[in-house]
Specification:
By secondary structure, the protein is α+β, with helices and mostly antiparallel strands. It folds into three domains: 140 residues, PAS domain (Beta-Lactamase); 72 residues, Orthogonal Bundle (Helix Hairpins), CATH 1.10.287; 147 residues, Histidine kinase-like ATPase, C-terminal domain (Heat Shock Protein 90, 2-Layer Sandwich), CATH 3.30.565.10. Strands 6, 7, 8, 9, 10, 11 and 12 form a seven-stranded mixed sheet that branches. It has a five-stranded antiparallel sheet with strand order 2-1-5-4-3. Strand 1 and strand 2 form a beta hairpin. The protein is elongated, with a radius of gyration of 50 Å. One of its GO terms (cellular component) is plasma membrane. It catalyses: ATP + protein L-histidine = ADP + protein N-phospho-L-histidine.
Amino acid sequence: MAIGVLGLTVGLALGGVVLLGTLGFVLQRTVDTEAFRTADAVALLAAEDALPDPLPVAGGQVRVQVVDGQGRIRAASIDADRLVPMVRPERLDRDGRQRFEVPSERVGLVGPVRVVAVPTGTAADPLTVLVARSMADVRHSTHVVRTILLVAFPLLVAVLAGVAWRVVGATLRPVEALRRGAEEITGRAGTGRLPVPASADEIHRLAVTLNGMLDRLESARARQRAFVSDAAHELRSPLTNIRTELEVAQRLADRTDWTAVTANLLADTERLSRLVDDLLLLARLDEAPPARGAAPVELGALLTEVAARYPSPPVRVVPPAGPLWTIGTVEELRRVLANLVDNAVRHAYASVVLTAEAAGPTDGPAVGAYHLVTVTDDGPGIPAADRVRVFGRFTRLDDGRARDDGGAGLGLAIVRELVRRAGGTITLTDAPEHGLRVCLLLPALPAQDGQALTSHDAALPPPAQR
């Protein structure tokens, strides 16, 4: 506010100075123009040798003299001096028009006097017409304007400062309300919303944006609390089993079957290790940007590699008609397929079928050319109402299809995050006959591009030699 008022004051002061300077210049030019007009008229009479005596001049603030080359006055207006020229002869230029400022007592006018000189006559008898006009009216007008500015300027600055104070105060009042609202939310360490002003301006949009941010933060905080609670619950189970096994073994002493105890402890330890690894992976996926190690991946070969880890039957691969290339991180895509096949094998009755085919252009959530990878099992399936919910973390359904033998309900959550990072989508549908089909859409890469990129990477030397 202070800086604004100071800038306004400086601006108005400079404007006043410019106004006074311009006004004085314009008024002086007007006086000079009228004086030259009078001098030109007298010069025309002198050139025709028709000078009257006295010279006819209108107005009491004008004096006219016609001076010859020796400084003698040939003619003058009725109020002009007939003995002493208004300008000394040595200052006159016989070849050009001139302007002079002379003392008022030399001319007999009030205030500063402006004198113009116009040469006339002949070469043998050069004459100069001198016209003097008083600048008292000009100075008076300038003085009046300067007085008005000096009186009005402080009042104008005061009025504008008051208006600016009210406007700035009204503008910042919603900001202060936002600050108090944020302070209250911080003080009670709970949920809340900032006040939204009624005006549809930048402050309104800022309040709406901040409330949206607070809602997202609260949702993230709620998810974090739920995640920590579920993780603590899942971690408690294997730890409780391990403690129970050890306490029982300690009580039984010599009657303890340490081989069985060791096997049970190893199983619980492996379950605990898998759970910790899955939690760390999800944490990294939440925080890290998409991986930079993306490279062409041939889906048919990847399906064959993953399926080779399981007995056949039940796992069977239907090879694609040709190479199907996509862009992604091999480790992440391998983890996606491994999780899906693990889940399918766990719940299948007799068979699990893996297929890959070109899906072509699609619309909807995924637009563009994609390859379709499916994992189909003949198990009990998942109800349609639960096919979105199962991708949540620590989600396990109550029916036999989803009872996870020792799992924590993180497999499909990890799959969803990895597929999202790869630029694809995943959905669950019914199998053609009976069971569940997982449909995975991955971005398609033309076969020639995938082969060219793979050949280029293979031709590069190892990183240590580059």
